[in-house]
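Posted in: Protein Modeling Q&A

I'm a second-year student putting together a small comparison for a lab meeting, and my supervisor asked me to include a predicted structure for Serine/threonine-protein phosphatase 2A activator. I've never done this before, so apologies if this is the wrong subforum. The sequence is pasted below exactly as I got it from our records. If anyone can share the structure token output, I'd also love a short note on what stands out.
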Amino acid sequence: MLSVEEQNHCFVPVRRILNNDDLNLFREGEAYRLIDSFICDLNESVQDKPISAEVELSPSVAYILLILKRVEEIHNLNPPVENKGSRFGNPAFESFYDQVECETPTLHAAFKIEENAIAEAGKYFYESFGNRRRIDYGSGHELNFMTWLLALRRLEIIAKEDYPAIVLRVFVRYIHLMRLIQSTYFLEPAGSHGVWGLDDFHFLPFLFGSSQLVHHKYLRPKHIRDPEILEMCGDDYMYMGYVRFINELKPDVSLRFHSPMIDDISGVKTWAKVNEGMIKMYRAEVLSKLPIMQHYLFGNLIPATPSMSAAPQEGEDAEASHMHSTYADCCGIKVPSAIAASKIGWRRMPFD
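Accepted answer (user: helix_wrangler)
Welcome! Here is the predicted structure, written out as tokens:
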């Protein structure tokens, strides 16, 4: 574990990617290497392993699961409020978020790390449940969750031997928790590309899920078009389970129309090729996109390249250094997610 002195050098992480030059520096720097290696190692750790596979739960992993259980309890303590002014973005999310943030130091105290290290790792933790002000969620918040786990790895709270359990127990639990949060508070998609994106909210279930299936004896990418196979295999394989979930939200239209990118990928011959493509796509569509990475945070555990832009000053209007995308893949136009639409009812459009 990092020494006390090293932990005391930790600090609450801040934004450092403010423009394309910063993004290029990030892609050439240590932080990118740390994130990419961590994702790839997790991916490899679950190759050919179903969710039901026996994995050893270390005390640290068991406690991380308890932390997520507490977040669910906090969710239950903050039910949605009457919100006639909007069909999505329930204001009760703010009280949920505030309570998670407030309890973060206490939840991390059991790790026996210094206060500064708790502050740094904890920031990634509560940022992984969505944006308090915009009441939205996207792949950048999912990345914050992975960075929280990476920070715990850097602090040697979790070890490489924990990786299968991190994906098959912790990450799977996080996905189910986020579905609950998304459906309760009607979180907007942060940077959704609509039907032309992979998913409104998540990317990694497809990446890790395709690794689970690389050498499967019977299942092939084309089988995601078969509802019976999705029903039989969805509980054991993230990829199948997530496609099943999307189909349940959009039962009146086919996969081809509501998720054409996922349908196109089903034409790939092998899961190995799908997994390889998912890794490349994650690097290109998440780690290399300014509208997503401009929100990423750097501290001591996940360091910025020194020549990146200075962090915005405390109290500075966040929008002053915020780059908006012409194509609404950043803050975007306020549209309900598929989860919200499934609750409020679809309003048919001519191209639906």
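A couple of things worth pointing out for your meeting: Strands lie at 14-15, 136-137, 188-189, 297-298. The two ends are 54 Å apart (CA to CA).
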